[in-house]
Amino acid sequence: MSAQQPPKLAGIESTSTLPQHTVPSAAAAPHRQPAPSPRHPAVDDPALARPVERLAAVQDRLAGWISDLTTLHDLTERLVRTDTLEDAVHEALRAGAALVGARRGLIALEPADGLGPDTTVGLGLGAADLGHIETVPRDSASYARLLDGLPGTGAGGAGNAQSSEDAQNAEDAEDAEDTDGTEGAGTGGPWGLREITHPHIARDEDLDPRHREVAARLGYAASHAVQLTARSTGRVGAAVWLYDEPARPTERQRHLLGLYVRHAAEHIARQVDLARARSAVDTVREGLLPSRLPRVPGVRLAVRHRTGPRGGGDWYDALPLPEGALGLCVGGVTGSGPDALAAMGRLRASMRAYAVMEGEDPVAVLSDLELLLRLTEPARSATALFGYAERSPSAAGGPEAGTRVVLAGAGHCPPLIVGPERTEVVETALSAPLGMLACWEAPSVEVDLAPGETLLLYSDGLLHRTGEPLERAFARLRAAAVAAAPAVRADPDALLDHLLRSVLPGERGGADGGGGTLDAGAAEDAGATEDVVLLAARF
User: Can you point out the beta strands (E) in 231-296?
Assistant: First the structure.
């Protein structure tokens, strides 16, 4: 049998011999020295140790890159989940602060097209703090210099952004400067990012004295600002993060921030466009709905209208009619968005005209409206509740006259009567929504209201918003009306606010009757998109 060959390690011929698999003789054993244990050749060879060290360094660098990519992925994923401009700006502030190691900061939105919105949002800064920062002259405040394109900010448009090599040279030059940080640096950062760093504001003599004074008052010693620029719209705004101690972001932090800000600016730019569109829709809606409720002798009116996340087509109206009568209406069209909003405006205007001509017959008003809807918009349906209220004649010397109300509904929720002595549901006749049948018809209902009683009309969105079955939601509404205190029952505004708080705990109600928004979290949990309308008339 041939002798066993030594193994090969990493392609290198091993010169060490393996011990023989034989037992030495007893005579020879005392005279033999113990064989040394085999050693790996890379342990004693410096030439082989250096590649191992380089491999370990490469592995460490790869691990760092993977960690950075994971961090960026998590932060950008959280950013894209935001669906409003306010949420997007707050998330960008929090992510940027985590990337550069800061605790506070602000984003100043000032789109380059001048169409707004121009606003400032802070992280860890109150309204008074932001007010102090805004007193710093614009030629000294880092975020304002980025917005104005002043010298030293790398401004000049996206086409003049520095290349990656130039950015690296600027970084190397910055690292070679004196580290006391007495001067702010304004350079083109990584990825052509326009940035300004003030590593030690108190010792920066080039800054305006007011800048140093505000920094000392608010307790920040350094700042790092970047411009927010989108490829499609250009400049969106500027962000600045504030350090409690003299500091400046490292090259790695600047690199990660540059990557994140590129995506954040694009997302914020899209949210700016959406915010403008929502504002335009809200402006149109305000023009289509009553700007204020009419003043009618002997009647107190109140309304709450809250727009859903997508903007629906609910409307309300209260209009004086001939002979001292009053017309009350709440309705809504199917769908959401601009189309539903336009249809809502057409139906409301038509109902006003029909109410003036034949308001004393609510069934005739709804029949005319149904015919118009079927002829002009056959693919759409609508619900509506119309009431005609007039004073009841009183006998001479008798008690104070009450109010007679004639109601007709088309697929709408029944109204409520809330008074000092009773809380009742007005059982209107069951009927289909307008536009659902070839010929709509339903009987009217007549009710008598005593002095001090309130008639409450509302949209089905109030019930849908609860996220519960309609029967349970309606029971909650009726229970809230029953639980109202006497003083609340006597005040229509207080009654509507009480009902909103009880039925929709997440509602941000107010004393005004103008448009508003429901709490986004409550709306999302309920999965509803409908508007909410409540109209109260106390006679």
Answer: 234-243
Q: What's the rounded Cα separation, in Å, for the pair 172 and 189?
A: 11
| Rounded percentage of the chain residues whose pLDDT exceeds 70 | 75
pLDDT at 325 over 50: yes
Phi, psi of 91 (to 5 degrees): -65, -40
Among 13-22, 119-128, 459-468, the minimum mean pLDDT is found in 13-22
- Give strand pairing partners of 448: 404
Residues in the chain: 539
CA 466 to chain centre: 21
Helix, strand, coil percentages (3-state) for the chain, rounded to 5, are: 40, 20, 35
Alpha carbon 527 to chain centroid distance?
A: 16
Tokens of 410: 């088309």
Task: Name the more confident of 508 and 496.
Answer: 496
Pairing of strands 312-321, 119-123: unpaired
Q: Is the dihedral of CA 242, 244, 250, 256 positive or negative?
A: negative
The dihedral through the CA atoms of 357, 360, 364, 368 has a sign that is positive
Give the per-residue pLDDT at 131.
93
- Gap between the Cα atoms of 233 and 112, Å rounded: 8
29: CB partners within 8 A, 6+ apart? none
Predicted confidence at residue 21, as pLDDT, reads 38
At 240-299, the pLDDT tens digits run: 999 999 999 999 999 999 999 999 999 999 999 988 888 887 787 777 888 889 888 889
State residue 303 phi and psi, 5-degree precision.
Answer: -145, 150
Question: What H or E segment, with its residue span, contains residue 407?
Answer: strand 403-410
**Is-contact 354 388, C-beta < 8 A?**
no
Segment 145-160, tens digit of pLDDT:
998 876 554 433 333 3
Radius of gyration in angstroms for the set of CA atoms belonging to the chain, rounded to a whole number:
37
Q: 386: Cβ–Cβ under 8 A, 6 or more apart, which residues?
A: 327, 328, 329, 351, 355, 362, 365, 366, 407, 408, 409
The candidate with the shortest Cα–Cα distance to 384, out of 539, 538, 528, 535, is 535
Q: In the Cβ-directed half-sphere of 378, how many Cα atoms lie within 13 Å?
A: 3
